[in-house]
Specification:
The protein is an alpha/beta fold. Among the domains are: about 1-85, Winged helix-like DNA-binding domain superfamily/Winged helix DNA-binding domain (Arc Repressor Mutant, subunit A), CATH 1.10.10.10; about 165-265, D-Maltodextrin-Binding Protein, domain 2 (3-Layer(aba) Sandwich), CATH 3.40.190.10. Helices cover about 40% and strands about 20% of the residues. It is built from nine helices and eleven strands. Strands 3, 4, 5, 6, 9, 10 and 11 form a seven-stranded mixed sheet that branches. Strand 7 (about 195), helix 7 and strand 8 (about 220-225) form a beta-alpha-beta unit. The N and C termini lie far apart (about 55 Å).
Amino acid sequence: MQPHQLEYFLAVAETGSFTRGAERVGVVQSAVSAAIAQLERQLRTPLLERAYHRVTLTAAGEALLPHARNVLADIEAGRDAVASARGEVSGTVLLGTLAFTGPWDVADLLRDFQGRYPLVAVHLRQTIAGSATSLAEVRSGALDLALVSTQAESLPGLRLDEIHREPMVFACAREHPLARRSAVSILDLVDLPFIDYPTGWGNRTVVDLAFAAAGAARAIRTEVTDFRLARALVGRDLGVTIVPVSAVDESIAHIPLREPLEWSVKLARPAGRRPSQATARLADAILDPYSALRPTSRGLE
């Protein structure tokens, strides 16, 4: 077995796709397919079930998966040891991020980090599927770190460190009947059409729980994955929403909620798995309150 065969196998197994697996490792799909086919011939058994829409693991593939992770982790640890002996930090870090990070400027973070550690390659992956997916990928090893939105203080297999918290507000068109209120309650919003975000998004979970606690239901007219599109729809009075305060601008009205709701961003790391030097340094940079936090001009009013 060659390390690149295991790397390609792991990429396809964790993404469920030869195309996405090839994108992750940065080679053409044909190279990934050929390497895995060769690995299957060497092991004399199929490792993957190739369906039309998704690739899944066979029993043999499931058996190989943890060993492939361990071998690649050992290789990375060996590279770390050699780099450390030379006084260097090098390697690759897979970082997941939210589609919206509030006042955090991820581009600034990566620019500053790259300047300090030029031999580290950070592969950034923005999720549109929500924090639930990112948390699962950190737990499985598909991501080394992830910026997530979750109300949980702890989760099995994960370490969570809060890096930001802000209030959520009700947002509506400026001509909406509630736009002049000084505050609104969840029960005031029951009959309104909502612009909301997919299940699995942290802010969606906060709002779902708030309505459930109030014993109320709401009508979700539209689901989006882009706060700019949400603002445009709300601004044209096509629905209302509840969002972090840093997600609103002057184009829409935003009103405090009587039930205090908060949105938080946390750094998710695997528990019980030793990080590479590169991963540890990036985690330190993210947790440093002065390294990347850039409050917007609106702040957290």
